[in-house]
Amino acid sequence: MEAESETSFTLNCPVVTIVMPIYNGEKYLDSAMQSVLRQDYSNWELICIDDASTDQSAAIINRHAQADPRVLHLTNERNLGLPATLNRGFTEAQGALHSWTSDDNILRPNMIATLVEKLETEPEADVVYAGYSVIDEEENILRYVAPPPIDQRWFGNPVGAAFLYRRQVTEKLGGYDEQLFGAEDYDYWMRAAHHYKMVPVDKDLYLYRRHERSLTDMRSKEIRQLVSKVLLRELKHVDDNALRAKALVERILSSWHHFDIQLFGRALISHPPTVLKASPRLSVDLARAIWHRIRS
Fold it and tell me: Quick check: 39 and 109 in contact, CB under 8 A?
């Protein structure tokens, strides 16, 4: 999208709202904020919410907020966690289009422009989501993750880290589930799929950082359990027994060292042929899980 076609920015009418929850993010926060400030598309507001950090995050946010009126600095008096902080941010949102990003990740310069243009050229789309690259602590690219079609949501979170959606999605869904910290995004997109058209954009628009303090790594076991909870809830709406069994089998295989016998039983009841077809992989999976437990 050419800059000349943008609506001129005023504090009262940004087109895009980006929420950034922040908790002790000083190591990567400046890079994360700079990646928003350097977007090709300029008609946005960035709502930074300090979730009771104890490091220098507040000072970094404040420096950018003083330099750019599009940056709003909010503070939680106590640590609320990611979903509640997101919900607070979106209650303040002025934009017609919404997104959020983490304090350790990076938007590529054309991310917002590309996704805004997609929503403009496909008015029937309500949520657009793009591919992203996984990077390490030094920003070395490890791999590219392409966005799968939304009908693959039974086998993992298809939306990933780069997305933009219309304000009515926020209003309809009523926010992120604060009881699903770590799986709040998967739950959100699963609920969105009941009501809205969700369109993938196969472009690399985001850098997703993996490091020892990332939520994905620190709370991996708990997150897997919450994702399984969301999946089981959503599968109640699925009439295709084979699809239900396949989704459960893939869920088991995605976390082999925490083999879930209950998911295995549900899959077997749903569609035995699907489970039997996957039995060699599941047998290896179960053996690995048993060995892992013996060693630990």
Answer: yes
Which of the two residues, 208 and 258, has the higher pLDDT score? 208
Q: Which residues pair with 22 in a beta bridge?
A: 50
Q: How far apart are CA 232 and CA 154, in angstroms?
A: 10
| Inter-residue long-range contacts of 187-190, CB under 8 Å, 24+ positions, other chains counted | 187/230, 189/127, 189/153, 189/157, 189/158, 189/159, 190/153, 190/230, 190/234
What is the residue-wise DSSP string for 255-277?
TGGG--HHHHHHHHHH-HHHHHH
Integer CA distances (angstroms), 10 to 13, 112, 147, 161, 245, in order: 6, 18, 33, 27, 51
Q: At what angle do helices 184-192 and 220-235 cross, to 10 degrees?
A: 20
Q: Does pTM surpass 0.90?
A: no
Q: Which of the four pLDDT bands, split at 50, 70 and 90, describes residue 217?
A: low
Q: At what angle do helices 220-235 and 261-270 cross, to 10 degrees?
A: 20
Distances (CA, A) of 249 to 36, 283, 292: 39, 12, 19
Structure token digits, residue 51: 């979730």
What is the longest distance spanned by two Cα atoms in the chain?
A: 63
Q: Which residue has the tokens 């929850």?
A: 21
Report the distance separating Cα 10 and Cα 3, nearest Å.
Answer: 15
